[in-house]
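Input sequence (265 aa), recorded before submission:
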Amino acid sequence: MVEDLGQAGDITSRSVIASNAEARVEIVARSAGVLAGAQAAELTFTLVDPDVDVQFRVIDGSGVAEGDVVASVEGSARSILTAERTALNFLGHLSGIATATNDLVQAAEGTVAKICCTRKTTPGLRVLEKAAVRSGGGVNHRLGLDGAIMIKDNHIAVAGGVGPALAAAQASAGPLTSIEIEVDTLDQLDEAVAGGASVILLDNMAPSTLRKAVARVAGRARLEASGNVTIQTVRKIAETGVDFISSGWITHSAPILDFGLDFSG
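Predicted structure, C-alpha cell format:
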C-alpha cells in the first residue's frame, strides 16, 4: 500500500466520501478460475484500517465461476475504497497464476508428471506467487538460489563440462543438499547419469527425445522437462514419462483472473 498512498494518502476518497460513511461491498469473480491470494487481499484492507471486516466465502485453491461472490467487506467507505485496487491486484494476479497452473495440471492428469514453477517470478512477490502455484495444484521448485544446487548451461560452460561441474558440486555439497543439472543433449544426459546426478533437467527437448531420455535413464534419476511448455504441448510432454514439467510462464506471464468490487448496501 505504501506506493499507492504516497505522501498524502487517498486524497480522492478523503475529498468525496464523508469520514463517517460506512459501506458493505462484495468481491465478485468476473471470470471462472481458481482462487489464490485471499490472505494478501484481506491483509491489504486491514492494514489500511484494522476495523474493516473481510470475510472470504471460498479458500485458496477453490474453483470459482463467473459471478461468484468470493468475499464480503464491511466498514469505513473511505478505507474500503483506499484499499480496493491493491487488494484486487493481489487477488487477480495470484488467482491468474493458480488458474494457469491448474490448467496445466488438468492437462497432465493421469500421468506421473507434476507441474512446477521456476524462479521467473516478480521481484518481491516470489513467496506469494509460489503459494499461488500450489493453490493451482502445482509444486514448487527451489525458492531461491540457496534452496538447492542447480547447475545450468552457463555453469557447465564455465566449469568445463557436465562431468567436472557435477564433480565440483558433489565435493562441496552437504549430505542433504539436492543437486540438479541441466542437459541439452542425450550425450550430456549419459554423462550426467554416469556422474551420479539425482535430478536432471532436460532443456527444450522434443517429446520424441524426452521419451528416449526416460528410457535411457530407466529410473536412475528423476527427470524434469522444461521449455516450450504450453497448454497445447504439456500433455505430450507429460506422456513421455518425465517426473516434473517446469514452467516460467505460469508465474511471469499468466493472465489475471478478473475480480470486481460491487457495493451491496
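Checked by second reader. The longest helix spans residues 77-107.
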